Amino acid sequence: MIYTMEYESPVGRLFIGEKNGALTGLWIEGQKYFLGAHKNEQMEEGQTPILIQTKKWLDSYFGGEKPSITQLKLSPEGSEFRREIWKILCEIPYGKVITYGEISRKYAASQGLSTMSAQAVGGAVGHNPISIIIPCHRVVGTGGSLTGYAGGIDKKIQLLIHEGVNMEGLFMPKG
């Protein structure tokens, strides 16, 4: 059973999911992979402690503060590889961006590998089930391409501007 709550944000309606006392999902309405691994689970609207805590976290975030990810108990569902990539995303500071290549090098180093596919990393980043809080919007392509955000590039840009990211050198991909 997943307990859910909707949240109206500056980037649109968000759908928050909690399972077993931990935040398991935060999706932007209409995003790619909406509900992810939870599509076939029974859902019920609720006011659980973690949902209320997440709402307060989002109020703080959208209010211009920089709440810590560690304030929330997170339990994103995915493979071990994806969970490791999501941990790396949690290390990206507010107002900063990192490339898929940088994440792949960090992951490779942590696993004692010489290389790691940036495409595989991109797949894990794209399937992040806890948008905004696990900050996949802070990941850009090589050279500053604003590519690959399941919630939409327009939402990614809004979030980066909200966080005060220097947008100089970042660009929309052609095509």
Structure description:
The protein is 31% helix and 17% strand. The protein contains five helices and six strands. It has a four-stranded mixed β-sheet with strand order 3-2-1-4, with helices on one face. It has a two-stranded parallel sheet with strand order 5-6. Helix 2 crosses helix 4.
Number of helices: 5
Largest sheet: 4 strands, mixed
CATH architecture of the largest domain: Orthogonal Bundle
Element pattern in H and E:
EEEEHHEHHEH
Portion of residues within helices: 25-40%
CATH class of the largest domain: Mainly Alpha
What's the arrangement of strands in the largest beta sheet?
3-2-1-4
Distance between the termini: 41 Å
Count every beta strand, where a strand is a DSSP E run of 2 or more residues. Answer: 6
**How much is the average pLDDT?**
93
Radius of gyration from the CA trace?
A: 16 Å
Looking at this structure, what is the CATH superfamily of the largest domain? Answer: Winged helix-like DNA-binding domain superfamily/Winged helix DNA-binding domain
Based on secondary structure, the structural category is: alpha/beta
Give unreliable regions as ranges: none
CATH topology of the largest domain: Arc Repressor Mutant, subunit A
Oligomeric state of the chains? single chain
Total domain count: 2
Strand content: 15-25%
